[in-house]
Amino acid sequence: MTKFLTLKHWQLIALFAILPVFIEFVLLTFLLFAKNRAIMYYAFPLLTIFFLIILFCWYYSLGVNLHKKLPAGVKMNVLKFKILLFIPVLYTFLFTIIVASFTSNFTTFFKPNAGNFLKVLPMHIIAIYCFVYCMSFIGKALKSVEIKRNAMYDDYWALFFLIWFFPVGIWIIQPRINKIFRNNAGNAQI
């Protein structure tokens, strides 16, 4: 996963945005000519999960490896980061499967109705909180490494939003990540 630290911003955009759009275009073209469309009910959720795993791996790699570079005296709980990153990963996986079952014509575990969505809502809110915490952790760690002291919210709020809106943020954040890890590519670990 440390390869994410040395990729150029355009390579990450290709991985996170261009490749998924291309694969979706190919699948939609296949769908137009396919006689058995049932495969599409499995292909799109699997692609969603695959590309979200890549995104979460980028976040994990950033959080863990930036934590290792924190200046002395800056304390951030990397175990909490790992746990709170795992929760949205698990939730996204389960939610994608459930939504795929709603849209398929196969037997589903749940019937789509407002009651079932209200059951999912608390977990959705928890996953959002965890995801926001993880983006904040990465932003704070990046800024703390750059300024060589404990970053306050005023120092890293812009990084938080750049991480949140990653297609735009990658163009700004990844060169900064490259600069930090350029000389120490061999020292970064999982």
Largest sheet: none
Structural class based on helices, strands and sheet pairing: mainly alpha
| Oligomerization | single chain
Give the number of DSSP strands: 0
What is the share of helical residues?
over 70%
The fraction of residues in strands falls at under 5%
- What distance lies between the first and last C-alpha atoms, to the nearest angstrom? 6 Å
**Cα-based radius of gyration, to the nearest Å:** 19 Å
Q: What is the mean predicted local confidence, pLDDT?
A: 81
Task: Give a verbal description of the structure.
The chain has 6 helices and no strands. It has 190 residues and is mostly helical. Helix 2 runs antiparallel to helix 3 and helix 4 crosses helix 5. The longest helix is centred in the last third of the chain and has 34 residues. The C terminus is likely disordered.
Index terms:
single chain, mainly alpha, 190 residues, disordered C terminus
Write the layout of secondary structure elements.
Blueprint: H1 9-33, H2 38-68, H3 78-103, H4 114-147, H5 153-164, H6 166-181
Helix pairs in contact: 1-2, 1-6, 2-3, 2-4, 3-4, 4-5, 5-6
